[in-house]
Design goal:
Helices cover about 30% and strands about 25% of the residues. It has 17 helices and 27 strands. The strands form eight sheets. The chain has a seven-stranded mixed sheet with strand order 2-1-10-9-11-12-13, sandwiched between helices. Strands 4-3-5-6 form a four-stranded parallel sheet, sandwiched between helices. Strands 19-20-21-22 form a four-stranded antiparallel sheet. The radius of gyration is 23 Å and the shape is globular.
Length: about 575
């Protein structure tokens, strides 16, 4: 698609986009929510653009806020979440997309984020309001967006493109959560970039998403992109996907030109959990694209997904590997329709910072190229750009890059104010390692997660994949490898979830731990300090589902996993 015939967004701010579609296509469907909690078949509830705008205005008028105040969105997934998020922005406040306090396992993170952003008000639903009020306390106004009080007299403030639209709190995989400051201009630029990068025709598209709306990819895919382009958004609850993953694929097949996004684990989950009888009735030939991002992409998982759903009309070129992060709104690189490129790199060469294709080694999936922004692979110590084929830190420059972290000037300067040697522009330091090979970006890992033993670099996801191959009962994507201080050099620990851990005898556990040690020694030349097999759910994750290696290391050092086996 050329830039000339790319359809324009509805306005230069999110509120202008809502006004535009409510005026020009008032009766067209804006949002459909498939409610599987009330009906196993997924009862559809649809709002038109006019209805959505009316609900947003009613909720915005009930918010006791001034321009620049923060409004935390603590709604369950669904239409009310969309209304609450847009109402906060329409009222002139800064939205903070979060989640219902009842979400298991996340109360501590929610409390930390609320303390950081200090919201003047919270939006939720009438059903969730009692629990929300108990959680936030009496000093914070709580508004139920599905039952707003009569509107106060207020002229809707006119937003400007450079005004802050929302704070996107990072998942905290390597540090405490921080709120990325994103303007209207940032997020609308990213919408344009991703649709150009994917080569999609949004004139006849529908977005379908089960991703949490408080997550950057879920928010941009399920709410902001359709709002910007006037598309229908079809949403479902993440729990409905976990209960029956076929529901997601059924919704995709219900709409021609549908496109979606999901982390790598969702592809594995669908391929392993959806029965053949359910696959047979899917209509995946209607899908335009599914973006695979948010966590390391496993080429074996892609192969399995493509094979599992080929008979349903799904083709490998519909899978679009991508790379992104909240600090750049969400998307940085992706690619047009083509079978995902998988390249095998020499493991020893990669450990020394050079990506050299080989017959045997590390298989990495290409994540495409940037569109409308710049990506450089940089020596993080010198700020010098490294040549293609060399591993470097990924730096990003473009209109989609956020303004910094909310009220964290030092961290903002360090992350968002990097300078390339000989270049006066500000660049975003991602903390991720990558390599450019034949024009595409490959992700090698995170700098802070990098395992360095005896001067050699080892990428944790590579070690984790080797450990997972030791036994089918080890849960894929549920292994953490990390370094701890040793006597003379760093030592490596592996913590792996085992599906049948409760029934695993001690001799069998010792034998499996020894097998993991042998595999990692043979493949990586690493002598592990400890191997720990744990029940499902014991390896910590971020809110976006990534392995939280730092948190896992902390638990290990605190003795939370008990004693290791087969030392």
């Amino acid at each position: 698609m050329s830039q000339e015939n790319f359809p324009a967004v509805g306005g230069d701010t999110l509120t202008a986009c809502l006004r535009h579609w409510a005026a020009t296509t008032p009766d067209a469907p804006a949002l459909t929510f498939a409610d599987f909690a009330e009906d196993p078949a997924g009862r559809r509830r649809t709002l038109s653009w006019r209805q959505l705008a009316e609900r947003v205005d009613a909720a915005a008028g009930a918010l006791p806020v001034s321009p620049g105040d923060r409004v935390a969105v603590l709604c369950p997934q669904g239409p009310d979440y969309v209304v609450g998020f847009l109402a906060a922005i329409t009222a002139g406040a800064i939205a903070v997309p979060l989640f219902d306090p009842g979400l298991p396992g996340h109360a501590g993170r929610l409390a930390a984020v609320l303390a950081d952003c200090a919201p003047s008000a919270v939006v939720t639903t009438a059903g969730a309001q009692p629990g929300v009020e108990e959680f936030v306390g009496r000093d914070t106004a709580v508004v139920a967006v599905d039952r707003p009080e009569p509107a106060r007299t207020w002229p809707a403030p006119a937003a400007a493109p450079d005004d802050v639209a929302y704070l996107q709190y990072t998942s905290g995989s390597t540090r405490s959560p921080a709120g990325v400051v994103l303007t209207h201009a940032n997020v609308l630029a990213n919408v344009t970039q991703v649709v150009r990068g994917l080569g999609l025709d949004p004139a006849a598209a529908t977005t379908v998403s089960w991703l949490p709306l408080f997550h950057d990819m879920g928010l941009v895919l399920g709410l902001i992109t359709p709002l910007a382009l006037g598309l229908r958004s079809v949403l479902m609850d993440p729990l409905a996907f976990i209960e029956r993953p076929v529901r997601w694929l059924e919704l995709l097949g219900d709409h021609a030109g549908s496109w979606s996004a999901a982390p790598n684990f969702a592809f594995h989950y669908c391929a392993s959990r959806i029965r053949e009888a359910d696959r047979a009735r899917l209509r995946l030939g209607r899908v335009a694209a599914i973006v695979n991002g948010a966590e390391p992409i496993n080429p074996d998982v892609l192969d399995r997904f493509h094979t599992a759903f080929a008979a349903a009309g799904y083709r490998p070129e519909l899978t679009r590997p991508a790379y992104g992060l909240a600090e750049a709104t969400v998307f940085v690189t992706t690619g047009p329709a083509a079978t995902p490129r998988v390249t095998t790199f020499d493991r020893d060469a990669l450990a020394t910072g050079t990506a050299r294709p080989a017959e045997d080694g590390i298989r990495l999936v290409a994540c495409g190229a940037p569109a409308g922004q710049l990506v450089a692979l940089v020596d993080p110590d010198t700020g010098v750009v490294r040549p293609d084929g060399s591993v470097g830190e990924i730096w990003v420059h473009g209109p989609n890059v956020g303004a910094g972290y909310w009220r964290k000037p030092l961290e903002s300067t360090e992350t968002f104010g990097a300078r390339l040697a000989g270049d006066g522009r500000s660049w975003l330091r991602t903390g991720d390692l990558g390599v450019r090979h034949e024009g595409e970006l490959y992700i090698a890992g995170r700098i802070k997660d990098l395992i360095i033993v005896d001067g050699r670099n080892h990428y944790p996801q590579d070690v984790e994949a080797t450990a997972a191959s030791a036994d089918p009962a080890i849960r894929p994507g549920s292994v953490a490898a990390f370094a701890v201080a040793g006597t003379d050099t760093e030592a490596v620990v592996v913590v792996a979830e085992h599906r049948g851990h409760a029934e695993l005898t001690e001799p069998a556990e010792r034998a499996l731990a020894a097998a993991i040690r042998r595999l990692i020694s043979d493949a990586h030349g690493l002598a592990l300090r400890d191997v720990l097999l744990v029940p499902p759910g014991r390896v910590p994750r971020t809110s976006s589902g990534k392995i939280a290696r730092g948190a896992c290391r902390d638990r290990y050092l605190a003795g939370d996993y008990g004693k290791a086996l087969a030392r």
